[in-house]
Prior knowledge:
This protein is mainly alpha-helical. It has one domain. Helix content is 73%, strand content 0%. The chain is elongated, with a radius of gyration of 15 Å. The protein starts with a helix and ends with a helix.
Amino acid sequence: MLSCREFDQFMLDYLEGGLPVWRKFLCWMHVTMCRECAEFVRQYRRTVELGREAFDAPDAPVPDSVPEELVEAALAHRRRSS
Length: 82
C-alpha cells in the first residue's frame, strides 16, 4: 500500500485520471483506508469546484467573500488545465 507521502506525489494525476491502472488502484486503496487523505481529496475537489463556479463568468467580479487564496488556487489550476 502507498504511504500518505507517496499518495501526495500522485494525487493530482489520480484525480485527473492520468495514472496507469495499477497505480490508480493503489491510490484508490490508500484513499479508502486513510481518513486524512480521503478528507484531503474531498477538500481539494471542493476547492476546484468552488473555483470553477467563481470563474464561470470570467468578466463577473469575484465576490469579496471569496478568500484570495482560493482565487489564486483556482487560477493556478486553470493554468495547469489549459
